[in-house]
């Protein structure tokens, strides 16, 4: 085997493979350079998710002609001067590989002007692949603008692995959020295909930045973390109360010395702090900022600097856990209900333009509902209630009793001349009937007795039934969840149906969202339509839910809470082009629509559920993988009772 030196362009392509994963990787590297240049405003514009065009403009210190000439040279950096600097990294970037890696797989152009330059005398340079042009004078404002076009134009094998434009733009938005959170004093703007996604004005607090990114509905309820500055570790941040926990871990952000990181140790401390306060399958919302001495952390363990190594990891873990527990112990964690402000006749509320527009929109929605109510759709093959229903103020119809909604065969009229039919046997069970009582004088009839039950509910959560060789114990929620999930999948797979049965809301439910969340819902409008969900714009940062699945309405599922979980699923699974997101949403729908542990069932309801178990695929587990059935054989029972 012959050893050879690799050419420079191939070295740069290998480095690009480690650093440049997708357009968001380039946006991250360029913004970090802008932050290191002490920019106070950074504007990002992308086209086609960043695959076609990326432009990052800042008002930072800029570069002179000599610095610009070295920009695309590998391992050229202004962040390090000697070996000691590598042990105390205090800047966002330091490797000197970013721009060289970017230009190795794209067409790049830089226009810059130093803050110390007179007038608007700047310089520009172009590069493409392994070709770097000469520095030319140009007119430019103070700062730097970097433009990147046709990412992976010379590596088609990498380009074909890029996702859709919406998916890539979502990754770009996430990177901007990660960089904007620890730098609230910097203004960030982001546009995608000339549509504004973020307009984050410089502010004084992290809470204000969280509100701008994720909405005041979340930002206003966050708890400030008790700051700790002992033992060379400083902890600060904002965490959500248990009631704000989400179904995805995407709402957990950890920052070390202003750099976004992923760290299992910090994540473990966060989970431990919330132990016993939230359900095990929920995730707390957290924005944690850790400050340590740069000499006590190694940030050079990953090419993208997303992972770090602490010198004393247990100390950091203990400090964070103590700060989080102190915050939660001091806070009032009782959830509160948000009520609309009452308006008395004596003091009518002033009606502004926004209020009038909202009321007009509500009136129009009600008019549309009565004018264009959709024709009846075929009923889903779900368990549906046969109980009488009554209208409720929000325009839905609900069972008068909140029970397990499954159809039961109507009772057959009994001929008085015929003796009562024998109770049917179940799986080989032998029943005997008492002989008729001898004829005698009339007497007081004996009290009516219920027939022996074929199944039994224990603690209103488990169903115990007899089988041929023992007995089975069934988790009623898990089994019903599996039944509903299978029927949801079957309905969506049926080419003759257009989606799940839905019902228009008389009064649309409103949901406050960020621009990125609105884009995410808009990009998945077809998926939501198949699920029976229709969401339309209702203001600058508000959406209105016009239509909701009938199944969830009947189970009294809160509309906005469910949409929040749908958003979490879409954010988490947006890289899989909808299939995994659909799977997660259907699992959530089945879980919310299924009967709950602690809900009493009638004999007929339990027997109906058992009958559905025999017909359901994969009935041994719920869609989340939990078992539905536990079986005890006669041998197991005999062994326990020492009969073997």
Please characterize this protein's 3D structure.
The strands form six sheets. Strands 1, 2, 3, 4, 5, 6, 7, 8 and 9 form a nine-stranded mixed sheet that branches. A five-stranded mixed sheet has the order 10-11-14-12-13, covered by helices on one side. It has 19 helices and 25 strands. The protein folds into three domains: 8-202, Histidine kinase-like ATPase, C-terminal domain (Heat Shock Protein 90), CATH 3.30.565.10; 217-330, Ribosomal Protein S5, domain 2 (2-Layer Sandwich), CATH 3.30.230; 455-644, MutL, C-terminal domain, regulatory subdomain (Ribosomal Protein S8, Chain: A, domain 1, 2-Layer Sandwich), CATH 3.30.1370.100. The longest helix has 19 residues, at 353-371. It has 644 residues and is an alpha+beta fold. Mean pLDDT is 79; it is low at 337-351 and 369-451. Strand 23 and strand 24 (542-549) form a beta hairpin.
Largest sheet: 9 strands, mixed
User: Any idea what the radius of gyration is?
Assistant: 32 Å
The name of the CATH superfamily of the largest domain reads Histidine kinase-like ATPase, C-terminal domain
Low-confidence segments, ≥5 residues, pLDDT <50? 337-351, 369-451
Measured as a percent range, the helix fraction is: 25-40%
Q: Count of helices? A: 19
Structural class: alpha+beta
Overall geometry comes to: elongated
Q: What is the mean pLDDT? A: 79
- CATH first level of the largest domain: which class? Alpha Beta
Cα end-to-end separation: 70 Å
Q: Please tell me the CATH architecture of the largest domain by its name.
A: 2-Layer Sandwich
CATH topology of the largest domain: Heat Shock Protein 90
The proportion of residues in beta strands is: 15-25%
> What's the total number of strands?
25
The tally of structural domains comes to 3
């Amino acid at each position: 085997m012959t050893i050879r030196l690799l050419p420079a362009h191939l070295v740069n392509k290998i480095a690009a493979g480690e650093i440049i994963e997708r357009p968001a990787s380039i946006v991250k590297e360029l913004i970090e350079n802008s932050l290191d240049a002490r920019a106070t405003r950074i504007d990002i514009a992308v086209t086609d998710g960043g695959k076609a065009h990326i432009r990052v403009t800042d008002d930072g210190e800029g570069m002179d002609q000599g610095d610009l000439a070295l920009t695309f040279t590998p391992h050229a950096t202004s962040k390090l001067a000697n070996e000691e600097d590598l042990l105390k990294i205090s800047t966002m970037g330091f490797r000197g590989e970013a721009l060289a890696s970017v230009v190795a797989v794209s067409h790049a152009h830089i226009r810059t002007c130093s803050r110390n330059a007179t007038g608007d005398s700047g310089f520009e340079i172009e590069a493409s692949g392994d070709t770097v042009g000469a520095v030319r004078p140009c007119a430019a404002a103070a700062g730097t603008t970097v433009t990147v076009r046709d990412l992976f134009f010379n590596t088609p094998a990498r380009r074909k692995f890029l996702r859709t434009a919406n998916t890539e733009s979502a990754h770009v938005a996430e990177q901007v959020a990660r960089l904007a959170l620890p730098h609230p004093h910097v203004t960030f703007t982001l546009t995608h295909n000339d549509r504004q996604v973020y307009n984050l004005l410089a502010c004084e607090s992290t809470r204000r930045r969280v509100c701008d990114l994720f909405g005041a509905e979340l930002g206003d309820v966050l708890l400030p973390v008790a700051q700790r500055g002992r033992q060379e570790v400083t902890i600060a941040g904002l965490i959500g109360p248990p009631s704000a926990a989400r179904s995805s871990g995407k709402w957990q952000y950890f920052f070390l010395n202003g750099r976004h990181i992923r760290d299992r140790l910090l994540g473990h401390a966060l989970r431990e702090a919330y132990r016993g306060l939230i359900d095990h399958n929920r995730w707390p919302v957290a924005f944690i900022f850790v400050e340590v001495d740069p000499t006590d952390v190694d940030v050079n363990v990953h090419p993208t600097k997303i992972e770090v190594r602490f010198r004393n990891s247990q100390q950091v873990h203990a400090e964070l856990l103590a700060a989080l527990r102190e915050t939660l112990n001091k806070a009032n964690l009782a959830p509160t209900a948000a009520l609309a402000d009452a308006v008395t006749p004596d003091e009518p509320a002033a009606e502004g333009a926004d209020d009038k527009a909202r009321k007009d929109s509500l009136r129009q929605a009600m008019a549309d509902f009565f004018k264009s109510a959709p024709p009846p759709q075929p009923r889903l093959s779900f368990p549906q209630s046969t109980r009488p229903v009554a209208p409720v103020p929000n325009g839905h119809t609900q069972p008068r009793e909140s029970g397990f909604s499954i159809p039961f065969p109507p009772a057959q009229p009994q001929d008085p001349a015929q003796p009562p039919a024998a109770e049917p046997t179940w799986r080989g069970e032998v029943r005997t009937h008492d002989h008729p009582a001898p004829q005698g004088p009339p007497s007081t009839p004996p009290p009516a007795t219920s027939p022996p039950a074929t199944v039994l509910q224990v603690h209103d959560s488990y169903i115990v039934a007899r089988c041929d060789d023992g007995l089975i114990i069934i988790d009623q929620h898990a089994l019903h969840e599996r039944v509903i999930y299978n029927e949801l999948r079957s309905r969506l797979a049926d080419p003759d149906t257009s989606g799940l049965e839905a019902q228009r809301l008389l009064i649309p439910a409103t949901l406050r969202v960020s621009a990125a969340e609105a884009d995410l819902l808009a990009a998945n409008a077809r998926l939501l339509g198949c699920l029976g969900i229709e969401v339309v714009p209702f203001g600058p940062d508000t959406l209105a839910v016009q239509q909701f699945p009938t199944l969830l309405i009947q189970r009294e599922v809160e509309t906005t809470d469910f949409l929040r979980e749908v958003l979490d699923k879409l954010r988490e699974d947006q890289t899989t082009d909808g299939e995994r997101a659909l799977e997660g949403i259907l699992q959530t729908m089945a879980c919310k629509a299924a009967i709950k542990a602690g809900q009493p069932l009638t004999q007929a309801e339990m027997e109906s559920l058992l009958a559905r178990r025999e017909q359901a695929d994969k009935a041994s587990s719920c869609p989340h993988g939990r078992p539905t059935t536990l079986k005890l054989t006669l041998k197991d029972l005999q062994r326990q009772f020492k009969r073997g």
